[in-house]
Structures are given as structure tokens and as C-alpha cells.
């Protein structure tokens, strides 16, 4: 092999090596970007899980309060019916 052929081969090898390094550098940058995106998604997911738990707790409290109000309304309605029946009974006896 002549010196020119060796230089050409070395130049070609150096070019291939440079291209390989550039591809590796791009791959590392892409991986870094994807990792940052993944971390942001993980943070968002944790925030959503926390918010869902908070809303579920709030919904449970609100549902319990609605049931208590419904039970109270039913009790008031029953007492009103009893009071009206008592008033009718007293009025009927007075006649």
C-alpha cells in the first residue's frame, strides 16, 4: 500500500469516526430531551393523581352531606305531616 492510499484510508476512517461521533452526540441529545419530557410527564401524572384523590375525598364529603340533608328533609316532611294531622284532629274535635 502506498502512502497516498494509507492517507486516503485514514482520512476515510477519520470521516466515518467523525460521523459516528456526530450520530452518538445526536442520540445523547435526543435521549436527554426524552428524559426531560418523561420527567415532566411523571410530575404531571403525580399532580393529577393527587388532584384526583383530593377531588374524590371532596366528592365523598359532599355526597355524605347531601345524604344528611336528604334525611333531614325527609324527617321534616314527616314531622309536618304529623303536625298537620294533629291540627286536623284538634279542629275536628272542636267542631
Task: Describe the structure in brief.
The protein is mainly α.
Describe the structure.
With 95 residues, the chain is mainly α. The protein has one helix at residues 3-94. The mean pLDDT is 95.
Keywords:
95 residues, 0% strand
Write the layout of secondary structure elements.
Layout: H1 3-94
Q: What level of helicity do the residues show?
A: over 70%
Succession of helices and strands: H
Which secondary-structure class do the elements indicate?
A: mainly alpha
Report the biggest beta sheet as strand number plus sense, adding barrel if it closes.
none
- The general outline is rod-shaped
Strand content: under 5%
Unreliable stretches = none
- Rg result: 40 Å
Amino acid at each position: 500500500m502506498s502512502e497516498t492510499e494509507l492517507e486516503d484510508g485514514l482520512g476515510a476512517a477519520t470521516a466515518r469516526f467523525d460521523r459516528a461521533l456526530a450520530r452518538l452526540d445526536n442520540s445523547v441529545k435526543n435521549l436527554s430531551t426524552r428524559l426531560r419530557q418523561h420527567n415532566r410527564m411523571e410530575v404531571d401524572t403525580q399532580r393529577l393523581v393527587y388532584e384526583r384523590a383530593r377531588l374524590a375525598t371532596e366528592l365523598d364529603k359532599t355526597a355524605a352531606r347531601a345524604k344528611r340533608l336528604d334525611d333531614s328533609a325527609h324527617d321534616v316532611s314527616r314531622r309536618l305531616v304529623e303536625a298537620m294531622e294533629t291540627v286536623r284532629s284538634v279542629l275536628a274535635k272542636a267542631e
